[in-house]
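Notes, p. 3: input format for complexes.
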Amino acid sequence: MRTLIRGGEVVTAADRYAADVLVEDERIAVIGRDLGSSSLAQGAELIDAAGKLVIPGGIDVHVHMELPFMGTHSIDDFESGSVAAICGGTTTLVDFVIPKRGDGLLDTLETWNQRHHGKPAVDYTYHMAVTWWSQQIHDEIPKVVERGITSFKVFMAYKGVLQLDDDELFQTLLRVREVGGLVTVHAVNGDVQNRMAERFAAAGQLTPHYHPLAQPPEAEGEAAGRVIDLAAIAKQPVYIVHTTCAEALGRVIAARRRGQEAYSETCPQYLLLDDSLYDLPGFEGAKYVLSPPLRKPADQAALWQGLADGSVATVGTDHCSFKFAGQKEMGREDFRKIPNGFNGIEERVNLLYSFGVRPGRISASRWVEVCATNPAKIFGLYPRKGTIAVGSDADLVVFDPHRHDLISARTHHSRSDYNVYEGLKLEGMADTVLLRGRIVYQGGQYCGGKGGGQFLKRSPL
Ligand code: URP
Ligand code: ZN
Ligand code: ZN
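Output follows (461 residues plus N-(aminocarbonyl)-beta-alanine):
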């Protein structure tokens, strides 16, 4: 099967140039000028990309599909999550396997595989969370890597549930180093967060207004700095997920200046939304509750600057959506019970173009780099994924810089009953999406069918 994407402008992390892209079966076969007249393109299905950009399929390395969390499950599973991702130009997802304290890594991986069986319509892999430490965890870490999962996740918050202490963190860093993996970190001081939240609760301060106050930027900066120092001692690279503020990003920048391999991921919500939303009337602020919380405009500016100058490596979403009705409402009387998280998987690539590239905050190549190329490189998927090159998977997005729309829960593909970006205007949107050579989104419609996504087995980094 052959497809010719004709007349577009190819954008990679390195270049921007006019070229046709010929896809043969699942891979990119030829990139060149005027391929339509060449015998190679005989019989190919044509996609007209005139006036459009051709970019690699987005890679979102931070999503939670059907996650059991805070007394409920995140509402998007791999079926609705895949459709939402693809409709927004993302073709690869990385979900998190999160064992309960006391549970094994391999048993939990089996649970995750069963839960998601037959559902992913995107290509996908997992990060494995370490939520407690024992000889069993020590012994299972290399077995996880043998199964092609080379990135791990630790939480410095969610005390009593997911949080590791410094000894457990350090042991994880040392062990993952031995097997050629990478540790990713939710960096917020969970003891501080827990104590602050308890103090607010004791004073009857239980509305969403207090959610961000319980985890101030200093608590994020402290944790980021601490784990970066532990990683330096362990001689292990480290990846800080969902960086929200200047305090945490500053720790990453300082580490990189010292020559340490430290990466920062941020998310669209921390670039575009701020903490004034927690003060919306009634219980509306609950819609925006996630951890770490939304911050101030000055933090948004620091993150945009980090995106522009390269100190922010990737943009994920932390897509962990819940319905307002019946789920966010669980915390109506107490902000500590509001399930943490919301949507982003469908909006990420389009938002970063509309609010990053279009106003000139970042270049188109940088957009591709943070949404696809760097995620692929850091997590061992490159060059199969994350770029446009001969031999790479034909995960491609024909992106129309002139297509515009308003984001709305009425039209999004998430199962959530609201969208945190409701009413924002997209100026530039994914138009046609291919996953391994197959057209899965076209004419504003998902057309990829059910399932069909492949598990991506990765090699030690
Ligand atoms: O609020 C969030 N971020 N929910 C998902 C779990 C996590 O901490 O990433
Ligand atoms: Zn987190
Ligand atoms: Zn997360």
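The two ends are 33 Å apart (CA to CA).
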